[in-house]
Amino acid sequence: xxxxxxxxxxxxxHTTQRARHTALFSGQTITxxxxxxVLSVLVITALAPTTTGQExxxxxxxxxxxKARSTVNATRVLNTTYFxxxxxxxxxxxxxxxxxxxxxxQAKLLARTFRQNDLQSIRNFFGESFVEIKRVPVLLVPxxxxxxxxxxxxxxxxxxxxxxxxxxQAIIYLNTRTFSxxxxxxxxxxxxxxxxLAQQQNSPTQGGEQQMIRTLIANVIPAIANNATYAEHYxxxxxxxxxxxxxxxxxxLFAYFMAHNIDQSVLxxxxxxxxxxxxxxxxxxxxxxxxxxxxTLFERWNTILFVNGTLTETRQxxxxxxxxxxxxxxxxxxxxxxxxxxxxTVTINPYSxxxxxYTPSTLGISESNTALITIATREELxxxxxxxTTTSISGKKTLHSHTLxxxxxxxxxxxxxxxxxxxxxxxxxxxxxxxxxxxxTHQHTPIQDGTIITSTDxxxxxxxxxxxxxxxxxxxxxxxxxxxxxxxxxxxxxxVLDFYTQSFLIQQGNDPRVWExxxxxxxxxxxxxxxxxxxxxxKWNHIFTVNNIELNWYTEGEPYSYTG
Length: 564
Fold this sequence. Notes:
34% of the residues lie in helices and 26% in strands. It is an alpha/beta fold. α8 packs across α9.
């Protein structure tokens, strides 16, 4: 117990001793606190890569990079709630302090505008399926002039590559050359939506159909908002190089077309599908009782791109498919121009198309001149719809459509070289695989009535009348016509033979009865009035006159009556 004076205060000797102990304890405490502070700073610096100025390695697309690099070093520029901005180190270090601050301020503005405006639009579009993601890496890196931005949904890297911080993570890339562009805000929003879609489905991809579809969905959002400047940017890019495999321009413009031609509920249903493929888009369209498919939408959009503003009679339907004024001048030219009487093999890249124009080899003097465009394609691609336009001598353009149902099929263009001066055929490919199509073209001069023809790949003999042909059933029948010999048989190209419609109607001499030959070679009397004959769809000019030997060659079956 401490000794005290009579007045109750501790003695000076004990007071000095306690002060000495207190001072010693206070010094130890301060030293320990300083130690903890230094240790904390070291731990935070080592473990938390959130400090501005930290440098890591990013992968980049060699095709887009100005120096064809596969990786670049990058320095952290700014952290925000939803984005982590990084700058390619060489570019970032070349900036003045004032320019660097300007970049930071622009990044802050982009992030704030996204949080206050764009994020709500994305939430509204996706509804309950919206996935909250934060700190998406955004790399500012010099790219080639025609590239403004791109997104890679996932990077596969060596796990032992310690200097690569964003292992297996999606990244948005922005071109430093266009970072100050007014469309950068939309680039950022679209990239965020695309990454959200990949994380929503938990199936990121390096490319292919799913990534294309996600880019398409992500671009529907600015399309719904009628962002005209964004559309104009990609319109210019698309016209410079239509359907470039290294550009998203066609996807952006197609997204605008879909947003303005499909109900938004269909697109939202599609966006929230379990998988993002053309098949799930077809399912969403079918769910809302539409007749469209991804294929038909793609074909219709491409047709509009070509005929925009050029068709008088269908202007309301074709000439203006978009709401934005910028699209009024959007029109792509034919990819190639050819004359007839040649063979052309066309390779069509995935999700692209080609318009090929044909002109007459010579200008004909007969109004019956016909161009035969024979298209050969694989059977698994059928049916294959080919839109085409014809241009008359007066400049009038007409849109047509032909659906191929066989691997080799001819499309006849009548009056070619007389009234029609050109024909442009559209070859679409709305699949992730390359298509190869072979086209044989011939300018066909009409064959005289009564000529016997055969083709190089067909041993059968046909007699021609007008635009029809009739099969001669046997050599016996052929020889019964004394004026016919095998020497007069004319061999023609298969496409020419295909041009003539086969008739199955015959009539003998002055007998008023008309007979029809079925597939088994049986003849049936058409027991009907002239009015019923016409109503049945049969044509008078398809009737061939035969001799008695040929008429009796066919077995007679039950008469055909008009059934209405």
